[in-house]
Amino acid sequence: MIDFTKKPLFLAPMAGFSDLPFRNLVKKFGADVTISEMISSNALVYESKKSLQMLQKGELETPYLVQIAGSDAEVIKKAVAILNDFDFVDGIDFNCGCPVNKVVKQCAGSALLENLELFKSLVYTIKQNNKKPLTSVKFRLGFNEKYPEKMARICEEAEVDFISIHGRTRKQLYSGKADYQSIAYAKQSVKIPVIANGDIDANNAKEVYHITNCDALMIGRASIGNPWIFYEIKENKKISQDFKKEMILFHFEQMLKHYKKQGLSIFRKHLHQYSKDCKNASAFRDEVNRISDESEMRRKIENFFSSL
């Protein structure tokens, strides 16, 4: 389902940002593979209404993977069984990279990098129970130290289809620079496809490919407020201001469609990012924070992004 010979671009799972409206938007700009926001296997098994809503797939999303997190093998097994029943899910991605304290305290996310026996056990559990075409794992370089080749080899032995590596340890959180040389080292140690992640944008994409020799790139924070980055990387071109405005309005409509009335307030954080580095951005952000009418918000977006 994924042609790695064409160096595909992935949208990284990002809590609060890579929801269905945003994933649909990046697909318009050439993102090849989209992945849901991280979903707790516990929440999925115990039928959290929010978690089930997060599973929804956009009409443009193919292939589409759901990312789960957790540390209990039995719960993860049940979560995989639930996902197996959804025809629209093309694969399952296992999160072993989230550095957030509340996830790590549950021995999930990047905490698993401190316990490679448990990491291995859970990767095998997912692979052996997943009936979908794709199984993947996303992890960091390590917890405090860097040893990405160890996780990479475990995943290859488990016959995982591909892995995504964020070029930082858990200790670094999002500070410092992503270490592409370490991703390259992990890439050299396995034959399965490796996806590079961390600090990748339109300016350094070619360099990251060159350093890591990776099979694909995963774009995360650089896409927030800049969903056209996938087009810019593939075509080496910038898009026009008018088209940006059109796509911001499209994003707004997608948010309203998905979240109903809540969509307007949730979209404010996106407008804060879209207006970053724009003239009069501070005043614009202050104004949109106060708007609660959909028509007024449309006019404000239209006027602001037409004046740039």
TrEMBL record:
EC number: 1.3.1.-
Membrane keyword on record: no
Pfam families tied to this protein: Dus
Enzyme class per UniProt: oxidoreductase
Similarity-based family: Belongs to the dus family.
Binding site for FMN: 13-15, 67, 138, 166, 220-221
Domain of life the protein comes from: Bacteria
Role, per record: Catalyzes the synthesis of 5,6-dihydrouridine (D), a modified base found in the D-loop of most tRNAs, via the reduction of the C5-C6 double bond in target uridines.
Catalytic site: 98 (proton donor)
Protein name in the entry: tRNA-dihydrouridine synthase
InterPro entries reported for this sequence: Aldolase_TIM, DUS-like_FMN-bd, DUS_fam, tRNA-dHydroUridine_Synthase_C, tRNA_hU_synthase_CS
Annotated catalysed reactions: a 5,6-dihydrouridine in tRNA + NADP(+) = a uridine in tRNA + NADPH + H(+); a 5,6-dihydrouridine in tRNA + NAD(+) = a uridine in tRNA + NADH + H(+)
Annotated source species: Campylobacter cuniculorum DSM 23162 = LMG 24588
Domain DUS-like FMN-binding: from-to ranges: 11-302
Keyword annotations from UniProtKB, A to Z: Flavoprotein, FMN, NADP, Nucleotide-binding, Oxidoreductase, RNA-binding, tRNA processing, tRNA-binding
